[in-house]
Every structure is written in C-alpha cells, then in structure tokens.
Write a structure and sequence with these properties.
Blueprint lengths: L8 E3 L5 H8 L5 E3 L5 H5 L4 H7 L7 E5 L8 E4 L4 H5 L6 E5 L2 H4 L1 H4 L13 E9 L13 E6 L3 E10 L20 E6 L4 E4 L3 E9 L1 E8 L4 H13 L24 H15 L2 H10 L20 H9 L2 E4 L6 E5 L5 E5 L2 E5 L4 H8 L16 H12 L4 E4 L1
Parallel strand pairs: 1-2
Antiparallel strand pairs: 2-10, 3-4, 3-5, 5-6, 6-12, 7-10, 7-12, 8-9, 8-11, 13-17, 14-15, 15-16
C-alpha cells in the first residue's frame, strides 16, 4: 500500500464535456462513485450470457488464469467449451470478451452514458467476468478506457502518471509490467466508473465475483493514417496524381535529390492532406470496423424506397440509430457535411444535418415529433440509404 497522499480524483457524477476535456482527457484518471445507475447496469449482459458468447466462433475471447507464481499464469483464446469453465475452479481466473456491443445490443446502450466522449474514437466494449483473485496483472494500455463496475467488487491500483518506457516479464503469454509503479488504490462496486488515460499503469484484482465493462477509445498510429489515406487515393485515379519531376534543374542530375525536389514533394503531400478528399476519407476511416465480422456495408434483403419509408413513418413507426452503430461527421466545404458509416461516406447539406444530429443522439425520429420531415426529399433519400445498409432500425414510439 502506497504511503503517499492519494491523488486519484473521486467525483460524484460523470463530468461535463467542458470539465472532461479541460481537466481529465489525456491528463489524469478519475473515479465516479455510482456513475452508472443500477437500472442501466441491470440491462447489460449477464455472466452466463457472456460465457455463452465465448463458446461461439465470432466473438474474440480470452481466459486468463493467475494462480500461483507469475511464471505459471496463462492466457488461452476462445472459442471455449462449457467444460473449460467447470474446470476453471472458483478462484483466480478471468474471462474477457471483446466487441460485446455488436453481439449484445442491450450492452451497447451503455454508450448513451458517455455522450461527453469522442464517440467516433470508440473502439469497443470489452466485458470481463472474474472470480476472486482474478486479474490480468499490472499493465498499461495505449488507449483511453472507462471501466464500469457491474456485479461484484474489484480492487484497483492506478498509476499517478503515464509510463513513458516500460518493460515486461518474459516467458508468459501476455504483457505484465516487470517493474512496480507508484499509484493509488481503490475498490470499485456496482455502478462505479474508473477513467484511465493511455499508458497509466493499472492493476485490477477481483474481490467478489465481478463483471466489468471496459469502454475503450483507440486512436490510430500516424502510419495507419498515412497508409489508409494512401490506399484511398490509390483507388481513385483522379486523386492519385503522379509526381513527374516538374521544375527540376541541373542540381537534380545523377543520383542527387535536390532540396527543391524534396520541398516540392512535401508540398504535394501537404496539399493532398489539406484537400476535401482527406476529410471525406477520415469519416470513412473512423467508421471502419477492425473486427472481421463487421464492416461489410451489406444491404438488407428487403430494401425500401422513399415512398415505403414515408408510409411507414406516417403509420407511426420511428427510426433510430442503434447504439452499436458508429457514425462520424465533419464539416465539408461551404455549409455541407461529410457523414461516415461503415467505411462509406455521404455528403450532406446543412438542411439534412439536424435530422442526422438527432439520430446521433440515439433519439427517435418520427413524423409525430418532426412532421416537416415528410417534405425533405434529400433527408428521406439519405435515411432510406442508411436504413437499407443497416445503420438505422425501425422502432415503435
């Protein structure tokens, strides 16, 4: 136990956007006592359902056992068998399942609690179930994470500052920090929320059989941005212009690349990064799934047209964007916007933006609340396209 004065900030409510970005984002951890209500927690995936997911081929799952010396700890990847859990015992193991929001839509509703975060950076909701003593050891992550405590209790040690250079214990199947870190200790119970910025050391140990919901936000590497945009340009001949050596002079003869030639190529790259195509690609990039089972932009078997959509809305049906569907939106030239969904993009006029803004709040969109929508042809066509590609769903009011 550290003898230093605790520095971990403890709040009684989730922060406002202004406070979050000014005081905490990328700066320091915090804990919110009772930040998520028991009603919200009660609708999320249960332990037996999580175990059931780990028996399937689609979800990515791990089973970590931490009994005995660290050198004896193990990590196995699913899918698992029911026998694996009956043999695991009543202590010292953790089941982790990723992308649970895609497989269990009710769990995706947890995202409604994090409207102050950059939802376009949201990676997934990973859910862990652990028995007493269960842990994945002291470690760091390269992403932001909100740890929401469901059932049970977990004891946490949280670093006071980001770790710049780390080393890991060798000879085991997962990354555990070799050296101890200076930190605060706290116990989380039902509804508590712990925010961890990237690279802050942390270690959780289960006190009572526990479910923990990890909402992760992962930014791309510079290399991923460059290679991704390069591939986008390569698929568009009108944008993928060739360097032809315009303006070269005698100082570029032979094998010499002149400083002027270097500057010209740098300028060409800068111009391309500042072009509208970069912003449009960016909303596609941030809505492309990293999971092989998602991101197919598949059309429904029974697509609808504008007339059918209007009739459905007139009949009292509402449209809603499910929480597990990720959108990204940014300004385009003039008063237009680029909307990204599932690695595709749409150009919106400012007249359409209010309807998309309402959907991004996961609010119901209906003719009851917005009767003027029936006359917005551009908006209706976009809503049709989004519905037909499974970005929107029908819902009763």
């Amino acid at each position: 136990m550290s003898t230093k004065t605790p520095t971990l900030v403890v709040l009684d409510a989730l922060p406002t956007p202004a406070d979050f970005y000014a005081q905490f984002w990328n700066r320091k951890p915090f804990v919110v006592r009772g930040g998520i209500s028991s009603e919200v927690i009660g609708a999320l995936i249960a332990a037996d359902e999580l175990a059931g997911l780990s028996l399937e081929e689609g979800p990515q799952s791990r089973l970590v056992k931490t009994a005995g010396a660290v050198k004896d700890w193990s990590c196995r990847f699913g899918p698992f068998l029911e026998q694996d859990f009956s043999e695991a015992g009543e202590r010292d193991w953790t089941l982790l399942v990723q992308n649970v929001e895609q497989f269990h839509p009710q769990t995706a509703m947890l995202l409604r609690q994090f409207g102050f975060t950059p939802r376009w950076l949201m990676d997934d909701i990973m859910v862990s179930y652990s028995e007493p003593g269960g842990s994945v050891g002291p470690h760091i992550d390269n992403y932001h994470v909100f740890l929401v405590q469901g059932q049970g209790k977990r004891h946490w040690k949280v670093g006071r500052e980001a770790i710049v250079k780390e080393s890991y214990i060798q000879g085991i199947d997962f990354r555990i920090l070799e050296n101890d870190f200076d930190g605060d200790e706290i116990e989380l119970s039902l509804g508590d929320v712990l925010y961890l910025p990237p690279r802050f050391g942390h270690e959780g140990t289960t006190v009572e059989s526990a479910l923990t919901f990890s909402v992760g936000f992962l930014g791309p590497k510079l290399s991923e941005l460059l290679s991704g945009y390069g591939q986008y340009l390569a698929e568009r001949e009108d944008l993928d212009l060739r360097y032809v050596g315009a303006g070269l002079e005698m100082d570029s003869a032979g094998f010499q690349i002149s400083s002027t030639a270097v500057e010209v190529m740098q300028d060409r790259l800068i111009q391309q990064l500042q072009a509208p195509s970069f912003s449009q690609w960016l909303v596609e990039f941030f809505t492309e799934s990293s999971h092989e089972n998602f991101g197919t932009y598949s059309e429904r078997d029974d697509p609808l047209d504008r007339q059918i959509l209007v009739q459905a809305l007139q009949d009292g049906v509402c449209l809603i964007k499910p929480e597990y569907v990720k959108f990204a939106i940014t300004k385009a030239a003039g008063n237009a916007f680029y909307l990204g969904f599932d690695a595709h993009s749409f150009v919106l006029s400012e007249n359409v933006f209010p309807w998309i803004a309402r959907l991004m709040q996961e609010d119901l969109l209906s003719l009851h609340s917005a009767p003027q929508l029936s006359d917005e042809i551009e908006a209706l066509d976009l809503l049709c396209d989004l519905y037909n590609h499974q970005a929107l769903e029908f819902s009763e009011r």
